[in-house]
User: Which sequence fits this backbone?
């Protein structure tokens, strides 16, 4: 009899539990969690009809904290610009799309590295939507960032020391300083993100601005001689002047340019001229020490405007392309 009463009470208790209303929403839904305090963790919340999608939403929200910092580093340095496009209407959309894709890849790479170690820690399902809390341990993430910064600092310091060697020729020194500058540029967003994580950053031994000033001084020491009767003499003179270098018949570096053109085509009311431009750098013995080729593409509604558009594009891009050419000269290992 006693056993039957206990069984009946157990069944009643179980039925009562099943029919009760859902438990109260957890505290972390408000954005704060006692288990994951903001002093130790960066957190974010995602919400979706599926659990996996909610996790991705939460990770994306966490990534945006760092994306803002990475965007701050996407400054356009005129002297060191590595890309460009036709400035006219028909190509504006393509240029904008390309720039956005490059920026998007930079953001994706940077934020994926930053949220390494972030993981879902809490879940809530109200019958319709899943809500997920992800957390990133600040100090553990900061340790990873400090290691990356230290590695970049060591590589940059070694390159700068190498460039200080007075026996190097000017082009090798310039190429080495540019490699160091790129490393310091990679360091800058990491340092900003370190500040987001722990409120502290690691000051570099040399700033990007100071290194760029050294590069400008190095460029001013370069003297170019132009190939005889080149059709692009005006553009080459413009490029050399933009870099702050000089031109002389006895210049230590020879410079030549060549344009290859495809036949002009008409598409949807626009005339298109495509091809490529090649720059060649020569030493004092006229031996090739560097050579690079870039695509060209201009358009106009009038066929007679193509040549002017081509000159405009080359004048816009050739200084940065010449800088790229110079800095591809490899130092001896």
Assistant:
């Amino acid at each position: 009899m006693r056993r039957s009463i206990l069984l009946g009470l157990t069944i009643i208790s179980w039925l009562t539990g099943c029919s009760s209303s859902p438990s109260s929403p957890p505290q972390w839904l408000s954005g704060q969690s006692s288990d994951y305090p903001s002093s130790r963790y960066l957190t974010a919340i995602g919400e979706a009809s599926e659990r996996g999608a909610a996790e991705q939403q939460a990770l994306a929200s966490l990534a945006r904290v760092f994306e803002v910092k990475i965007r701050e580093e996407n400054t356009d340095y005129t002297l060191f610009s590595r890309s460009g496009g036709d400035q006219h209407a028909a190509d504006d959309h393509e240029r904008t799309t390309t720039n956005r894709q490059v920026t998007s890849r930079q953001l994706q790479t940077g934020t994926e590295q930053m949220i390494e170690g972030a993981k879902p820690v809490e879940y809530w399902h109200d019958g319709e939507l899943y809500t997920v809390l992800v957390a990133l341990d600040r100090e553990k993430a900061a340790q990873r960032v400090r290691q990356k910064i230290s590695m970049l600092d060591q590589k940059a310091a070694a390159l700068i020391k190498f460039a200080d060697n007075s026996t190097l020729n000017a082009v090798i020194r310039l190429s080495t300083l540019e490699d160091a500058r790129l490393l310091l540029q990679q360091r800058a967003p990491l340092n900003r993100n370190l500040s987001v994580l722990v409120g502290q950053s690691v000051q570099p031994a040399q700033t990007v601005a100071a290194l760029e000033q050294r590069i400008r001084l190095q460029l001013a020491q370069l003297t170019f001689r132009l190939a005889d009767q080149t059709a692009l003499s005006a553009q080459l003179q413009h490029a050399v002047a933009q870099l702050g270098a000089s031109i002389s018949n006895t210049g230590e570096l020879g410079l030549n340019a060549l344009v290859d053109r495809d036949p002009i085509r008409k598409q949807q009311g626009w005339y298109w001229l495509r091809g490529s431009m090649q720059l060649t750098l020569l030493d004092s013995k006229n031996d090739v020490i560097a050579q690079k080729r870039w695509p060209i593409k201009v358009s106009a509604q009038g066929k007679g405007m193509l040549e002017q558009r081509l000159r405009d594009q080359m004048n816009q891009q050739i200084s940065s392309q010449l800088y790229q050419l110079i800095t591809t000269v490899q130092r001896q290992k």
DSSP finds eight helices and nine strands in the chain.
